[in-house]
Amino acid sequence: MKRALTLLLSLIMIIGLFTSCTPAAPGADTGGDTGEVVKVGWIGSLTGDQAIWGQCERNTIQMLVDEVNDNGGLLGKTLELVALDTQGKGEEAYTVTRRLIEQDGVITILGPNSSGEALGTIPALEAGGVPDIATVATNPKVTFDNGKVNPYNFRVCFIDPYQGSVAAAYAFNEMGKTKAAVLYDQSLDYSTGLTEFFIEQFEKLGGTIVAKEAFNSGDQEFKTQLTKIKSAEPDVLFLPYFFKEVGLTAKQARELGLDVDLIGGDGWPSEQLFDIAKDEMQGGLFVNHLDYADPAVQDYTKLYTDEFGKPPELNGFLAWDAFKVFEAAVNKANSLDPEDITKALEGIEVQGITGFIKIDPETHNPIGKEAAILRIEGEEYKFVTKYSVE
Amino acid sequence: MSWAYITTVLIMTGINLLAVIGLSVLTGFTGLFSFGHAGFMAIGAYTSAILTVWLGVPYYLALLIAGLAAGLISLVIGRLTLKLKGDYFIIATLGFGESIRLLFNWFDPIGGSRGFRIPSEIHYTSLSDVIIINLIALILIANLINSRHGRNFKAIREEEMASQVIGINIFRYKMLSFFISAVLVGIAGGMLAHLTHFLIPRNFDMTKSTFLTIMVILGGLGSLSGSVIGTVVLTFIPEFLRNFNEWRYVIFGFLVVLVMVLRPKGLMGGYEISDLLRWVKRRLVRRRGEKNESA
Amino acid sequence: MEKFIQFLINGIAIGSIYALMTVGYSLVYSIMNFSNFAHGGVIMLGSYFGFFAITILKAPFWLAALIAMTGTTLLAVVIERLAYDPLRRRQAPSLYYIISAMGISIFLENIVLATLGADFRNYPPLFQTSGFYIGGISIGKLDVLILVVGTISLFGLMWLIEKTKIGLAIRATSFNLRAANLMGVNTEFVIFVVFGLGGLLAGLAGVMYGLRYTVWPQMGLITNKAFVAAVFGGLGSLPGAIVGAISLGIIEAMATGYISSNLRDLIAFVLLVTILVVRPSGIMGKATEDKA
Amino acid sequence: MSLLELRDVTKQFGGLVAVGDVSLTVEQGSIHGLIGPNGAGKTTLFNLITGIYGLSGGTILFEREPIDGLAPFRIAQKGITRTFQNIRLFKDLSVYDNVLTACHMNTKYSVVEALFRLPARNQGEKKLKQETEILLDIMNLTDRRDVSAGNLPYGFQRRLEIARAVALKPTLLLLDEPAAGMNPDETFELLEMIKQVKREFGLTVLIIEHHMDLIMNLCDRIMVLNFGRVLAEGSPIEIQNDPAVVQAYLGEGGNHDARY
């Protein structure tokens, strides 16, 4: 019977422990734009296997929020950032979005950093009537599906089909490649998306895909896939995934004696790529949103590095742009009401660091963003050309 | 906290709860451990989504069929693996869960790794759906547990060999338990699909299975009310901890170990709320008796 | 044929990495009869220890490996004291150990994430990444190193278990913990040593894995493969662990090579279940009849 | 009429013969004793009869039908059940639930009837509860019906295990050292209890025991095993006077209490 008592006590203690935590948590009061503070949300991976990108986005946006406040705030109000973790999961993104809207009363949400999360936010945003500006959610369905635009979802990045087609067209038309091989992460939506459109475009232009091999997120050993690719004798290898696996792939490919040109997407650029496989990546080409030699890019990079002791990942640039788009929309609407901001977002034009952004009211995608082709030389990403298809 | 947010968390809790009730039958009452139930959840989620989106099947019927689909697969998997002992079974279920995820990633017609979208005109899982379904499930499972079949589950958990010699077909009962758990977890998957209206295989990973199992254990093995409490506590704790972001799961992991070390039988430790009430009542009666005597 | 041999070599290379992980896990299993899901977390920390030893302390590789192994040995023993020992005193069923181990694993992964960040870290290259070539077949230098180090350490472990006094105690304890205790074996000490050895191997595996690939907080997940490998070979059997790990590596390579890289893990799973249906205790596991 | 018949039953583990060519006939309604030194193969024989081990050779007939090769639960359903040398109770369940669980075969309501609490379920449960209460009364366990089985004193655990076995309404009950660890008083009480349940339920009993008093008092016939083979078989008097048994088993002076 004593047991029953300890049981009850421990239960009460545990519940008590956590309820007592709540008031201490920032932003737990009823929210809304009470007084002089107005809240903007950010969601994304702070834990889980995509945390590296989420952490960079959050840092960047915090930096920008501080800057806005130093310059007198947004429409005279102090801006507060509520940044919450989604673990990179769609259903978490759903819950977190609802919480930001219903409890914190944010006026706009920035992020998340992947399509899997962004797709989870759609019903939550529609229920709450608050806009979201995704940073790196490249799946077309995030903003536009079955001929219908999702009213509250926007993005500042370009979409998978575009990147995949650009890479394919560049490889075929400019590099003169005709036999391409693809290695991709089949459990990553980003990677399967790019692969699909790369293959479509490459074959449309008259090239052949000589090998298409897959792996799963978390894998680090690709030698067997690469052995198969090697025996198919491609003249270009498309690697549509993130730099960690890209670096390891390059290393293992060279180890196997597979000396073929590498081409990829915006998952490539990172300082860390050079730690993994600097020599092996030399000459690699990839599609990107921006030119690193651009002064705007360098200013931000310097600012970020000074603040956090390491250079930003690509997501940081897009987070920067997402924030700038948000800021512009607020100023254009001259209102802090989410519905007004949503309206203002449609058709807004902003000069971002990843290029000139104009949000298409029909699709909520940025239009006219030109892709840049960059080449890896030494420890630098050398701008080759702007390139676009169709 | 705002009511809309609480509603969201309650719906999440309800979805988790249904899955945990299912797992409780398997783990809490039959003593079998599975790290692959996220796989059944995925099967239920996709089945229900396909039914409502492509075939226009009504929500509740789609959930039922989704549960049965998960149950059907569980019979095949159970047939092959339920004869395995202890950790062999656990690892086999782990492999099953990962394989299901891989299949959904690979299978393009339902979106592959890019996910499957449910259009917004289709029913959204509401709080009342969650309450109705959980109440039904709780009543049915409580009935089952309080029957000869339920007692056979517990017998198997306690002592397999003794169960055999009193005539319990342990393989059949393990199959039944596995089936029931898969059905409930499958329905939970269907409810989840219709909450977020979007499905992506990476959401159904091993962490999900682990998390469900942890709820069962922390609530207390062999206690339905424990499962309810465990689920409510463990769904709400991470919500309260949300502002800790990166530190959230550090604290969570620590708590799990702490509970195991301090109270390994879980919060309810095999007792039901009704036992607790009975005990409190008996105490009160006794105290009143003492008072009367002294008066 | 050339391709077949290349696949085989690739399979053995990844298999030997699995083996280093599997053996430590299987060793703990043989004594404690539960799946130590915290093993992956310890391996991950081993990788970090080695990395920081090289980059911050500027230690040479062998010293860094030593430091990493010392660190993980201590870590494993501390985990045993804090998370498993209280359960053992209560004679809790193995389910509780597994959950406790899960808790530890969640804790370790996230504390690294929260303190060190999600960055990928890379060991400075030990060699140039060219391979040896025999005909058209390439053999990675690192793969050879891992195979050699792995073989030496596993033989060392076998020698320890077969030929030394503590090895005898370990064998006795793994046969029957309670009986060994009654026979005067200090089972507390044996458990201590076994967890220490498990940690030692985890450290070695971590360093090798980090050197071959990269270091990041979620890398412990790879141990799922090690658990599968252990079941393949037969839980608790050290030769079984090695056989299971190498076969899993080869199966994966062959499935990728000859069937489909998309379905690799599915094929491995189907094979696993097939083997378990035929031999419920894995390839080398003892088929035990219940004692009444 | 013979209820159970073993013909040349053999079990080998590896190359080791645990039970070799054992033949035995147990008459309906009798109490048959099984004695022999530790490691003689007595418990192995029980495991063979209840289907926990498979036979290496020979055959086992129950009610004139072969039962070897059947799963343990089928054999139990046919009417053979047992207790274990190292007590195997459902430790976390109460005394009452232990017995109630074992009654499960005495009613036939289905899973669906259970889920929806249909009348068949309610009637079945009522019947089981009555039976359980009667059985607890007979075994003198009613006072402790709410205690967890694991927390019972040793003697009671043994008794509960017998109660659980009897709950199946078996035809043949196998008792594996039911008096182990009991003091003389408890042993005597147990003896009476075995006689009572046998009478009440019309059981046939096969019993392994080291307490010679108990065996000689209780049994109609006794079989002696040594090194897995039959050493002697006969009435208690015959066994006591069998020179081979006296030499191999009872040892010096024929001390009845001698364990080995």
Can you lay out the helices and strands and say which pair or pack?
The complex is a heterotetramer of chains A (390), B (295), C (292) and D (260).
Chain A (H helix, E strand, L loop, with lengths): L1 H18 L1 H4 L12 E8 L6 H20 L7 E8 L4 H15 L4 E2 L4 H14 L3 E3 L9 E2 L2 E2 L3 E3 L4 H15 L4 E7 L3 H16 L3 E8 L7 H9 L4 E4 L3 H13 L5 E4 L6 H11 L3 E4 L6 H14 L5 H20 L4 H8 L3 E4 L2 E5 L6 E2 L3 E7 L2 E8 L3
Parallel strand pairs in A: 1-2, 1-3, 3-4, 4-7, 8-9, 8-10, 10-11, 11-12
Antiparallel strand pairs in A: 5-6, 12-16, 13-14, 14-15, 16-17
Chain B lengths: L2 H27 L7 H18 L4 H23 L4 H21 L9 E2 L9 H19 L2 H11 L1 H6 L4 H27 L1 E2 L6 H14 L4 H17 L7 H15 L10 H22 L1
Antiparallel strand pairs in B: 1-2
Helix pairs in contact in B: 1-5, 1-6, 1-8, 1-9, 1-10, 2-3, 2-4, 2-8, 3-8, 6-8, 9-10
Chain D lengths: L1 E12 L2 E12 L3 E5 L6 H8 L7 E6 L2 E2 L5 H7 L1 E3 L12 H8 L8 H5 L3 H20 L15 H13 L5 E5 L7 H18 L2 E5 L3 H7 L2 E6 L2 E6 L1 H6 L1 H8 L10
Parallel strand pairs in D: 3-8, 3-9, 6-7, 7-8
Antiparallel strand pairs in D: 1-2, 1-4, 4-5, 9-10
How would you describe this protein?
The complex is a heterotetramer of chains A (390), B (295), C (292) and D (260). Chain B is mainly alpha-helical and 295 residues long. Chain B has a single domain (3-294), classed as ABC transporter involved in vitamin B12 uptake, BtuC. Chain B contains 12 helices and 2 strands; from the N terminus they run H-H-H-H-E-H-H-H-H-E-H-H-H-H. Chain B has a two-stranded antiparallel ribbon with strand order 1-2. In chain B, helix 2 crosses helix 8 and helix 6 packs across helix 8 (170-196). Chain C has one domain (2-220). Chain C has a two-stranded antiparallel sheet. In chain C, helix 5 packs antiparallel against helix 8 and helix 6 crosses helix 8. The N and C termini of chain C lie far apart (53 Å). In chain C, 58% of the residues are buried. The model of chain C has no long low-confidence stretch (mean pLDDT 88). The model of chain D is unreliable at 252-260 (pLDDT under 50). Chain D contains 10 helices and 10 strands. In chain D, helix 3 packs parallel to helix 6. Classes of the chains: A alpha/beta (390), B mainly alpha (295), C mainly alpha (292), D alpha/beta (260). Chains in contact: A-B, A-C, B-C, B-D, C-D. Chains A and B meet through helix 1, strand 2, helix 4, helix 5 and helix 7 of A and helix 1, helix 4, helix 8, strand 2 and helix 10 of B.
Write down the secondary-structure element order of chain D: EEEHEEHEHHHHEHEHEEHH
| Beta strands of chain C, count | 2
Task: Describe the main β-sheet of chain C briefly.
Answer: 2 strands, antiparallel
- Average pLDDT reading of chain C: 88
Q: Rg of chain D from C-alpha positions? A: 19 Å
Spatial arrangement of strands, main beta sheet of chain D: 6-7-8-3-9-10
Helix content of chain D: 25-40%
- Evaluate the radius of gyration of chain C: 19 Å
Instruction: Kindly identify the CATH topology of the largest domain in chain D.
Output: Rossmann fold
Structural class assignment of chain C: mainly alpha
Number of separate structural domains of chain C: 1
Overall 3D geometry of chain D?
A: globular
- What CATH architecture of the largest domain in chain D do you see? 3-Layer(aba) Sandwich
Estimated structural class of chain D: alpha/beta
Subunit arrangement of the protein: heterotetramer
- SS strand fraction of chain D: 15-25%
Would you state the CATH class of the largest domain in chain D? Alpha Beta
Low-confidence stretches of chain C: none
Q: Most extensive chain contact?
A: A-B, 62 and 54 residues
